[in-house]
Structures are given as C-alpha cells and as structure tokens.
C-alpha cells in the first residue's frame, strides 16, 4: 500500500504572490513543525530568496516554542489570524476548499475508494499549479514561480485504467509481463507516473504505462452513497415524469415526415424531449424532385402516383391536363 494511505491530515503552503501551492501529508499534527522548517530551508535554497512573512491561523502546530525560535533565528515575521475569523487567512482557506472539492469529484467520477483521497489531493494540487491562471497577469502559478511554461502533453485523467509493465519481478519466458491497475498521480521526484497495481495492491511509480482512457471504470467497494445515483435522486425527492402518449398519424406532422409509409394510426408510448419549434418549415420538408415544367414536386405526390397505378387512364388524363397549370405543393407546417 502507499505510504499516503496511512495519512490523516494534509498541510497546504501557498506562495502569496505566485499562488504556487505545496501539499504535505501528515499522520499527526506533531509533524508540522519539522516539515515547515525543512520546507523553508529548501525553498530558500531553490529560488535563492528569503521567506519574509509567514501567515497562518492560531493552531498549536504553527504557534509553539519550536517554531517561534526558528522564525526568530531566520528573521521571519509572523502573522496570525484572529480566532474564529478564517477570512483573514483567505488565500489558504480557499485553496484548502478547492483541493478538497476537486479530490471529492475525482474520486466520485472514477468510482475510486476514499482511501485514495491523499493521491487525489496531491494530483489536484499538481494540476492546479500548471493549469489555473492567476489574475491580473494571466499566468499560471508554475510560470510565475519557475519562469517558463509547463509541459501538459503527458497529463492523463485521474483514475483511468492502465496496464503496467512488470519491471520488479523476475519473469519466465511465458510469464505475463504486464499487470492491471489505475492511474493515481504524478511523481514529484522523477518523471514516473504513480499507479495502483491491483495484483500487488500497492501504489508504485513506473514510466512504462499503457493508458486505457476509453475503457469504463467498474464500481469499486466504496461507500454506496458515493456511487448510487438512485439514492441521490430519492434524497432530492425526484419523481420521473411520463411524457404521455404520442399519436403517429398520416395526416399529422409525424405523417408528413414519414409520408407514404403507413396510412394507419399508430400509438407509441414513450418519453419525449421537448424541443424548440423551428421557424423555417423548410427544414422538415421532404426531398423534392424537378419535373418538366420547372415546378418542384414533393415526395408525397410521388407516393400517391405509385399507389394509383399506371393502369388508371382517367388519372393519367387528369395528370396530363394538370401539367399545363401550376401545381400547389403541400409542405410540413
């Protein structure tokens, strides 16, 4: 199993200018102080700049003697929001909510169990840094922080099914070389993908992956409320509406669209989708054929001629008499 599956908390650190975000996962809140100290040292070395102000809430994981001594040693100014006033730390609070909502949607969309919440949060943070645009400069946090545009061609849908090349076990000549699993994120220390191997039941990093993006995901063993659409509609008091019965008559609009197919009335009971009425009736007209006098002739007239038959001399006579005068064409209203 992945080490992230045993975590209970996640720590979000956001750069106030670029909005670039880092996520750290903790088994207990006591790990916060050590993680922050190591992160500040690493980021100062990475960008060759100093952290000047650190803003957080009044949690004991941020406000304690260990962190106070560290801030005093580094010369970092501390700012804390007032108790029960989260809007004073709005940047961090909004980013927390964004990541949680994105992770919940990703898990529900691909029917994954909630034990993969940490991988979903990490992937959401990874993608947001490279996709979201920061106003008013219209740049992504990645470009703000790193100075160049990120590559996006390698990104794949979270949770899609994959085939994994087995590079860990010693295989015989006729042993299967691939395992099945699903994609759960990106590696932060290499160019590998993070995938869950259903055979070994572990999250591993591998570059030799085949993505099956068009293959539907099978429902897992997660909570029923996460996948049951019927329960959702029942909780909303949703009741399906019967559209009633539609009569298909040869003299009605349906008869015009299917002219000549049947002269009997058919009743079809089905659900309907209400569509807007077209103002241009020519869209529903039947195909036309040109006749000798240049007037268009509808498919309805052709069918009537076939039904009358060529042996009816009176009809042939009437037809020859009518050819000299303009003919009216009835189209669908």
Description:
- This protein is an alpha+beta fold and 333 residues long.
- The protein folds into two domains: 3-212, Nucleotidyltransferase, domain 5, CATH 3.30.420.10; 245-322, no CATH class.
- Helix content is 31%, strand content 19%.
- It contains ten helices and 13 strands.
- The chain has helices at residues 32-47, 65-74, 90-109, 117-131, 141-146, 224-227, 229-235, 253-257, 299-308, 313-322; strands at residues 9-14, 21-26, 53-56, 77-80, 161-165, 178-186, 193-197, 202-206, 209-212, 245-248, 266-269, 288-290, 296-298.
- The strands form five sheets. A five-stranded antiparallel beta sheet has the order 8-7-6-5-9. A two-stranded antiparallel sheet has the order 1-2. Strands 3-4 form a two-stranded parallel ribbon.
- Strand 6 (178-186) and strand 7 (193-197) form a beta hairpin.
- Helix 3 packs across helix 4 (117-131).
- The protein is elongated.
> Radius of gyration from the CA trace?
34 Å
Would you tell me which CATH topology of the largest domain applies? Nucleotidyltransferase, domain 5
Give the overall form.
elongated
Overall tally of domains = 2
- What's the CATH H-level homologous superfamily of the largest domain? Ribonuclease H-like superfamily/Ribonuclease H
Largest sheet: 5 strands, antiparallel
Helix content: 25-40%
Organism: Tanacetum coccineum
Region (Disordered): 286-333
Protein name: Ribonuclease H-like domain-containing protein
Domain Integrase catalytic: 1-149
């Amino acid at each position: 199993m992945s080490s992230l599956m045993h975590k209970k908390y996640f720590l979000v650190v956001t750069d106030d200018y670029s909005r670039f975000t880092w996520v750290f996962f903790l088994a207990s809140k006591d790990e916060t102080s050590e993680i922050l100290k190591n992160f500040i040292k690493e980021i100062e070395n990475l960008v060759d700049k100093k952290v000047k102000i650190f803003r957080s809430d009044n949690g004991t994981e941020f406000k304690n003697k260990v962190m106070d001594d560290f801030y005093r040693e580094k010369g970092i100014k501390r700012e804390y929001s007032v108790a029960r006033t989260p809007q004073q730390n709005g940047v961090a609070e909004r980013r927390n909510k964004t990541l949680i909502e994105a992770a919940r949607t990703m898990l529900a969309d691909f029917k994954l169990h909630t034990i993969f919440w940490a991988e979903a949060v990490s992937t959401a943070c990874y993608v947001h840094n490279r996709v979201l645009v920061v106003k008013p400069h219209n740049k992504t946090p990645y470009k703000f922080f790193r100075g160049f545009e990120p590559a996006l061609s390698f990104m794949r849908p979270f949770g899609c099914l994959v085939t994994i090349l087995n590079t860990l076990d010693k295989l015989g000549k006729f042993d299967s070389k691939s395992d099945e699993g699903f994609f759960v994120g990106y590696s932060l220390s290499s160019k590998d993908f993070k995938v869950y191997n259903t055979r070994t039941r572990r999250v591993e990093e591998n570059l030799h992956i085949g993505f099956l993006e068009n293959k539907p995901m099978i429902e897992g063993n997660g909570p029923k409320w996460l996948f049951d659409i019927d329960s959702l509609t029942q909780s909303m008091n949703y009741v399906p509406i019967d559209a009633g019965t539609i009569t298909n008559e040869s003299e009605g609009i349906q008869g015009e669209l299917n002219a000549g197919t049947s002269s009997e009335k058919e009743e079809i009971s089905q659900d309907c989708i209400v569509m807007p009425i077209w103002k241009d009736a020519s869209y529903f007209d039947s195909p036309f054929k040109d006749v000798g006098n240049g007037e268009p002739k509808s498919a309805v007239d052709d069918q009537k001629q076939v039904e009358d038959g060529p042996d009816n001399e009176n009809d042939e006579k009437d037809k020859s008499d009518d050819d000299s005068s303009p003919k009216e064409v009835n189209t669908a209203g």
